[in-house]
Amino acid sequence: MRHQVRALRRALAAGDKAAAEPVLRETIGVIDRSVQKGVLTRNTATRYKSRLSVRFNALPSAPIPAAP
Length: 68
Known about the structure:
This protein has helices at residues 2-14, 17-37, 42-57. Helix content is 74%, strand content 0%. The relative contact order is 0.19. The protein is mainly α.
């Protein structure tokens, strides 16, 4: 689970919303499965998902162009 969250954070740091969207969906699934297996409590999982979703929604729709 931690590897998946790190991958999402790297995708969010890159600033490309289109590339981060599939990673977000996969990460939320991994977090939900962690709750089912008892690795995380429900409230902790909800907090993770909320914070990651807020960061995802804060990304601009178009990718940020790289500096020349």
